[in-house]
Amino acid sequence: MIIEYKKNDVSNILYVINNSATKYKGVIPDDCWREPYMSRQDLIKEFNEGVQIFGYNHKKKLVGVMGIQKLKNITLIRHAYTLTNYQRTGVGESLLKYLLEINQNTSVLVGTWKNAIWAIQFYKKLGFILHTKKQTVKLLNKYWKISSKQIENSVVLEK
Fold first, then answer.
1. How is the chain classified by DSSP, letter by letter?
2. Do strands 107-113 and 154-158 pair parallel, antiparallel, or not at all (unpaired)?
3. Architecture of domain 2-158 in CATH?
4. Mean pLDDT throughout 42-56?
5. Contact, 78 vs 67, CB < 8 A?
């Protein structure tokens, strides 16, 4: 079952994000890695900036999260994570399809690390198109608030 989560669910959301993000350790630049990967303050800031977080529950346990942020003429997929024990079981695909269904009237962008090949393949499998490096930089600067180091090491896909 997929439901929207709110700020009072931060602890459960963070557990999923930080458990799943361990997959990035050693894949992304060392100076972009943090423990925990996302802090409570950072997640609350995301909520305050309009990010909506949806969660996938399996037997009453939150096992995957994925957010959206609706901007002027575009929707961003934000913070897509599945507990390590539930990866490759359809959780991420179910969340993404749900979010695409409720956002049919806008283009959807997702940014991820360029060395996270599994993530890029996941989005491509579901119909996303990988932007060129030049277009990626333009989109990241326009729609995301991230460091230049992260921009240098990221890609953007669109559907």
1. -EEEE-GGGHHHHHHHHHHHGGGGTTTS-GGG--SSSS-HHHHHHHHHTT-EEEEEEETTEEEEEEEEEE-SSEEEEEEEEE-GGGTTTTHHHHHHHHHHHTTTTSEEEEEEETT-HHHHHHHHHTT-EEPPHHHHHHHHHHH----HHHHHTEEEEE-
2. antiparallel
3. 3-Layer(aba) Sandwich (3.40)
4. 97
5. yes
Q: What is the mean pLDDT of the chain?
A: 95
User: Mind listing the pLDDT tens digit for each residue in 59-73?
Assistant: 999 999 999 999 988
pLDDT digits (tens, 9 = 90+) for 85-119: 999 999 999 999 999 999 888 899 999 999 999 99
* The one-letter amino acid at 153: N
